[in-house]
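Quick log. Single chain, no ligands specified.
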Amino acid sequence: MPNLGEMLRASAWAGGLSPEALARAEAGVVERRVPAGGFVCRKGEAVECWIGVIDGLVKMANVSIDGKPTSFTGIPGGGWFGEGSLLKDEPRRYDIVALRDSRVACMARATFQWLLDTSIPFNRFLILQLNERLGQFIAMVECDRLLGPDARVARSLAALFNPVLYPGIGPHLQISQEEIGYLAGLSRQRANQALKLLEKSALLRIEYGGITVLDLAGLRSFGA
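-> predicted structure:
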C-alpha cells in the first residue's frame, strides 16, 4: 500500500511541478482514514480541500428528496476529485462514501489555490481532468436512461479503469460483487448475473476478491 508521500509523487498533477513546488504542495496535504460506510465528505458542506484516494474505494453519491439513493461513480486509489466545487467556491453537491476502509489525502484550499495561481502544468492537468470527468458523467446519464442492468455494470466498471482520471490502476481491480452492485445501483445478486454475462462475453475474468479486465473497449461499448 502506498504511503501519502508516494501517492502524491505518483499523481499526474505532480509530474510538472518543480521539487520546491512539490514540497510546498506536500506540506499542504494531510491523510485521513475513513472506515467502510463512513463519509469522506457530505453534501452541503463547505469545500475546504481537494481530495485524493490513497488506498481503498469510495463512491460519489446522492439521495433524492424522496429518499432514493443514486451512485454517480466510483473513485479508486490514485483518483482525485472535488476540484469543480473548489473552483466554483460552492457547497459540496454530493456525498462521498467509503465502500471499504479507505485512506484519503486532503489538500488544503490554500495550497490548491496556490498551485492554481502559480503552476501552468497544474492548470493543464485540471483542464484535462475536468474534461474527462464531464465525458464520464455524460456517458453515465446515457447509461442510466438508455441501457439495462448488464450494461450499467459494464460501464460502471469501465469508468474505474479510466487512464486519465486513475492513471495508476492496472487491469486487475480488487472489488467485491457487493461493491459493484453499489456502483451500478443493483443488488449483489443482479450484479453477479451481469458479471457472469460479461465474463462469458470475454470482457473480464471474475477472480477471488476482484476482477481482471480483458477488453476495456468492449466494456465501454457493451450494450450500445
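The mean pLDDT is 89.
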